[in-house]
Design a protein that fits this description.
- By secondary structure, the chain is mostly beta strands.
- The chain is built from 4 helices and 53 strands.
- The strands form 14 sheets. It has a 5-stranded antiparallel sheet with strand order 24-25-26-29-49, with no helix packed on it. Strands 50-1-53-52 form a 4-stranded mixed sheet, with no helix packed on it.
- A hairpin with a 4-residue loop joins strand 21 and strand 22 (264-267).
- 43% of the residues are buried.
- Mean pLDDT is 86; it is low at 69-83, 586-596 and 599-630.
């Protein structure tokens, strides 16, 4: 089996600038440096549900959830709207829109860098670039208390403030100090030189007896109140500056930190020093790579651009060294970037797709879906592209895009939860499905529920079936022969993550969930397959169900379609559905257990080339055992390639693997704060 091991896709995760838990604690919003906001479902196994696209010069520095329309939540959002002139402005969101309310008369002599509401909603505490902390009375808009912090040769920046119900003010500043102040008189209660550089963020738990601080020195410090405030613990899980902290409300025992190194780190807040933290990598959970297998070309989606690559070729006349475990052929031609597309939109891309025939490229942003027709000269590695201007006007911006396997139709999961099907020969909108607009009673309403976008699409190899799934965990199956709704699949206990039809048996739909379970449906007969009924509940081993990595892609061995390959960012798993898996002991608690968690054309250079490995035996057969965990009847794990962005087959004798080594990602990070270490 020839393996195209690709590292030329320079996927660049963005730094995290803000974190915010929803009032229920079930959702976590993550703001990235490029303006994207990710919504993670904490309660459902840390599933990345959706991405709200940002754009040029749209960096989000802080966020507040609005749940209901109470004055408390309204004001919390308003304090996030501040400018460089030192004023605090209030906005009203009680009517579902952001409406200017008023501006406080008193101001800082510089920028306001931090702001916090008192729990009684009667006052606001601000920290500024003028070395002061101020408590402002909301009713009058006047400063009731002004605190001057320590300075050293220049102004001290108060980067973070919080206020407790007893009036105690906690601050973090550019001197590395964490300080506790009497909120009535402004006297200093406790001071800790907790950090060797700026304290950028802090968090206070609901009981107000624990405080966490962090900043430029990538140290996370914990303070506890035991009659007085004391330093209680520390952690250095990040490699670079920590920009944001968030504590989940009860009953979730969760602290999350994030920053320049792009990772989310999850801790147990109750057992901060004893329970090991968990790292959530920043790689995408939705498709950013698509291929045209017959042409050996690949489309890669970046935040604001698309790249079309031609895969490399190996020298097949080379005599392999049989002494090596995995023989490597010399490269006859490197991977070549054929095309780079930079849309004129100021917003980031939402979705993209490459037709299996290579004739079309589709992409979408917040304002619309675009279709491009390509003409590729492989001899000269030149691509001619022109926009298809007669795309139907009814086509909407998309959450997901998919071409049918024969490349004759474009399927659009629209922003309003409709599914639109465009015939690419006639350029007509041939059908719109609205089943995802239906409520729990099955009645189709006029408008889509804004919290239930369609995020999974799959089409069968014979072009007969289409499946789509939304965030309500509803999976609909449609017939593309008659353009009719066919079935609604039973809902699972845990959210599904990906759908795929088996090319060898086109009516069999495979569904993976956040609990790493795999279900197989016979959509024609509207029931689970025999293998799924026998193996889904008791066949998967406990260590597999407990893995934190989510399945982001499903594909099938073209030589044996009964071998299903489940891909995560850490590995891929081969499930042989022609065999029954060994029955597990009662310790196997099923999927619920997994939810627990504390630009010009040219050849690629030598470091980012398309490496073609030819194995002496198939990676799915003899070559598997060298890098796989113990076989469990019909289950094998392969962790040879990681971090793994994409895995699929080009044909029966070759496959493509796209990796993004973490060291390559770190090369784009800024330098870390210099710290003197023992022995250096």
């Amino acid at each position: 089996m020839e393996v195209h091991r690709c590292r030329f896709f320079e996927y660049a995760p963005q730094a995290v600038h803000g974190l915010a838990f929803s009032p229920s604690g079930q959702l976590l919003a993550v703001a990235r440096a490029d303006g994207d906001i990710e919504i993670w479902n904490v309660a459902n196994g840390w599933h990345l549900e959706r991405r709200l696209p940002g754009g040029d010069n749209m960096s989000v520095e802080s966020m507040v959830w609005v749940s209901g329309h109470t004055p408390r939540v309204c004001r919390a959002l308003c304090t996030d709207c501040r400018v460089d002139y030192g004023f605090v402005r209030l906005f009203d969101v009680s009517h579902g829109a952001l409406e200017y309310s008023r501006c406080f008369s008193d101001k800082h002599d510089g920028r306001i860098l931090s702001v916090a509401w008192h729990p009684d909603d009667l006052s606001i505490v601000t920290g500024g670039s003028d070395s002061t902390i101020r408590r402002i009375t909301v009713a009058s808009g006047r400063t009731a208390l002004r605190i001057s912090v320590e300075t050293q040769n220049e102004r001290t920046l108060v980067w973070a403030v919080r206020v407790m119900s007893d009036g105690t003010i906690v601050s973090g500043d550019s001197l590395g100090h964490t300080q506790f102040w009497n909120g009535q008189f402004g006297t200093l209660l406790h001071r800790f030189r907790s950090h060797s550089a700026d304290v950028l963020c802090l968090a206070v738990n609901a009981a107000e007896d624990t405080v966490y601080t962090s900043g430029v020195d990538n140290k996370l410090a914990q303070f506890r109140f035991v009659g007085k405030w004391v330093s209680a613990g520390k952690s250095r899980a990040h490699t670079h500056d920590i920009r944001a902290l968030a504590l989940a409300p009860a009953p979730f025992d969760i602290l999350v930190s994030a920053g320049v190194d792009t990772n989310l780190i999850v801790y147990s807040s109750a057992n901060f020093e004893t329970v090991r933290h968990v790292r959530l990598p920043p790689f995408p959970h939705t498709p950013v790579i698509s291929i045209a297998p017959a042409l050996k070309i690949m489309l890669c989606q970046h935040s604001s651009k698309l790249q079309l690559w031609r895969l490399g070729e190996a020298d097949r006349d080379h005599i392999l060294d049989s002494a090596t475990d995995v023989p490597q052929l010399p490269i006859a031609s490197n991977a070549v970037q054929l095309l780079e597309i930079q849309p004129k939109s100021a917003f980031n891309l939402v979705a993209s797709a490459l037709a299996p025939t290579g004739e079309f490229i589709a992409y979408s942003d917040l304002f619309g879906t675009k279709l491009l027709r390509t003409n590729i000269d492989f001899n000269a590695n030149i691509v001619q592209v022109r926009r298809v201007k007669n795309l139907p006007e009814e086509v909407l911006p998309a959450h997901r895009l998919l071409f049918t396997p024969d490349g004759s139709k474009l399927i659009i999961a629209a922003r309003n939860a409709n599914i639109q099907i465009v015939d690419l020969e006639s350029m007509q909108l041939v059908r719109t499905f609205s089943q995802h607009l239906a409520g729990d009673d099955g009645v189709i309403e006029d408008e889509a529920d804004p919290i239930t976008p369609i995020f999974t699409l799959a089409a069968s190899a014979d072009g007969q079936w289409l499946a789509s799934g939304d965030l309500r965990n509803r999976i609909h199956v449609f017939s593309l022969d008659g353009f009719q709704h066919h079935a609604l699949l039973p809902q699972f206990d845990s959210q599904h993550t990906v759908l795929a039809f088996n090319p060898g048996n086109p009516s069999h739909l495979y569904v993976a969930t956040v609990g790493n379970q795999l279900y197989a449906f016979d959509v024609e007969r509207k029931r689970l397959t025999d293998w799924s009924r026998k193996n889904t509940d008791s066949g998967f081993p406990y260590h597999w169900l407990r893995r934190r990595e989510k399945i982001v892609h499903i594909t099938f061995d073209p030589r044996n379609s009964s071998k299903v390959i489940l891909q995560s960012h850490a590995l891929f798993c081969v499930v042989d559905v022609s065999r029954n898996m060994k029955q597990q002991k009662k310790a196997n608690k099923g999927p619920a257990a997994a939810a627990a968690l504390p630009g010009t054309n040219g050849s690629a250079n030598a470091e980012s080339m398309d490496v073609s490995n030819t194995m002496a035996a198939s990676v799915l057969a003899a070559g598997l055992s060298s890098s796989a965990e113990t076989d469990n009847g019909g289950l094998q794990l392969v962790d040879k390639y990681k971090p793994l962005l994409f895995f699929d087959f080009l044909d029966a004798s070759s496959m493509v693997v796209v990796e993004r080594p973490w060291l390559a990602v770190m090369e784009s990070f800024p330098p870390t704060l210099y710290r003197v270490r023992y022995g250096t």
